[in-house]
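Below is a filled-in request sheet from our internal design queue. Each sheet records the structural input a requester submitted and the sequence that came back. We keep these sheets so that new team members can see what a complete request looks like end to end.

REQUESTER: design group, bay 2
PRIORITY: normal
MODE: inverse folding
CHAIN LENGTH: 396
BACKBONE (tokenized):
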């Protein structure tokens, strides 16, 4: 048996936006820096690229343990479907490695959302193992996650909140159409008839929204998101071969927590804000302006239209904030049904996790805590844990 079959096969999985959310801007800054300094300087390698400080420390810590390091490229989009697809590609890569070197242990080191990709790959491997003949060898790689926000989507029973939000949106659109119809009324009969037809067609929209077909479609969408983010059962089966490394005040976790808070507040605010548009507030504001600026009854309609349009715009702003808050967990959630809830944790639900490590900065460093691979103890923690799992003694 060749020596390559006994070496540790390491696969690196980067997270969302590994080169930043605006890679072209980063390259532009690099080019400007080169022109101002009149010398070309190659940008520093990312943590998953050859020659990075993290890989240098990791190789030194592994020492006499033979290993081979490869990186899994993927789009890096903040998308649940993109992460699920990357998980399938990772599973294919691991299966190919295992077929080539069946005796070699495998290790996945995943950062940020790369950890979700790693667990999704394990799910694909489980599905593959289940289809094999009984008694066949199962593929069980070691997994290390670095600052991973473990995200799962579940069905939610929010009572009447989703219905009220849809009613609010329908009411706001209806009011806007009515205001536009009053404005168009003075522009011509033909234009008025055309717009009236649009108004009649929109009247059937609420019927479709609350129909059984639309309800079934929303349930299918939530089920698809739930299946694409399922982690609990996977983590439980893999618990003894999973190392979780996390940081204090991780910027990504704080952003996700902020998104969760905004999502909660907006979801419960929008159903009540509709009364601003068609309620006492709109009437009181109109009367107040009439009194303050001595507006005659003939001018009342113009100011009332302006107030209603402004209030409708305010509701749409709240809807936009709700969509943005949900987008931080995945772009698909911006337009996903309201009947889903998002669970984000620093560790997945599992029984008997092998080890969880919280790395603390001892000195001030001008870098994000989310880049936990730059921590001086990160590579050592990984190396010590891998040696304990493989029963390989340390050289020191």
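RETURNED SEQUENCE:
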């Amino acid at each position: 048996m060749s020596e390559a079959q006994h070496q540790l096969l390491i696969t690196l999985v980067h997270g969302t936006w590994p080169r930043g959310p605006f890679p072209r801007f980063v390259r532009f800054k690099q080019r400007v820096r080169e022109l101002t300094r009149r010398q070309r300087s190659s940008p520093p390698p990312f943590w998953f690229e050859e020659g990075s400080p993290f890989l240098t420390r990791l190789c030194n810590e592994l020492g006499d343990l033979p290993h081979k390091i490869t990186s899994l490229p993927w789009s890096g989009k903040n998308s649940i479907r993109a992460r699920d697809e990357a998980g399938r590609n990772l599973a294919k890569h691991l299966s190919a490695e295992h077929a080539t070197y069946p005796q070699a242990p495998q290790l996945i080191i995943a950062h940020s959302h790369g950890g979700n990709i790693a667990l999704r790959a394990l799910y694909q491997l489980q599905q593959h193992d289940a289809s094999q003949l009984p008694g066949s060898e199962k593929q069980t790689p070691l997994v290390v996650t670095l600052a991973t926000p473990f995200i799962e989507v579940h069905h939610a029973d929010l009572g009447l909140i989703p219905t009220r939000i849809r009613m609010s949106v329908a009411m706001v659109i209806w009011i806007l159409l009515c205001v536009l119809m009053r404005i168009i009324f003075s522009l011509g009969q033909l234009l008025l008839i055309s717009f009236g037809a649009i108004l009649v067609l929109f009247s059937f929209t609420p019927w479709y929204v609350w129909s059984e077909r639309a309800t079934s479609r929303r349930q299918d969408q939530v089920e698809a998101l739930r299946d694409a983010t399922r982690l609990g059962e996977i983590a439980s089966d893999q618990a003894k071969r999973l190392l979780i490394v996390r940081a204090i005040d991780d910027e990504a976790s704080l952003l996700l927590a902020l998104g969760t808070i905004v999502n909660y507040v907006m979801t419960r605010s929008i159903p009540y804000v509709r009364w601003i548009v068609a309620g006492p507030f709109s009437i009181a504001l109109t009367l107040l302006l009439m009194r303050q600026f001595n507006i005659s009854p003939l001018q009342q309609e113009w100011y009332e239209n302006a107030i209603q349009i402004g209030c409708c715009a305010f509701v749409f702003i709240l809807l936009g904030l709700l969509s943005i808050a949900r987008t931080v967990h995945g772009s698909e959630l911006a337009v996903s049904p309201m009947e889903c809830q998002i669970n984000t944790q620093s560790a997945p639900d599992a029984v008997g996790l092998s080890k969880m490590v919280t790395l603390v900065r001892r000195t001030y460093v001008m870098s994000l805590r989310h880049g936990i691979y730059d921590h001086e103890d990160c590579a050592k923690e990984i190396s010590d844990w891998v040696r304990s799992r493989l029963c390989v003694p340390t050289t020191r």
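SHEET NOTES:
- The mean pLDDT is 79.
- DSSP finds 13 helices and eight strands in the chain.
FILED BY: M.R.
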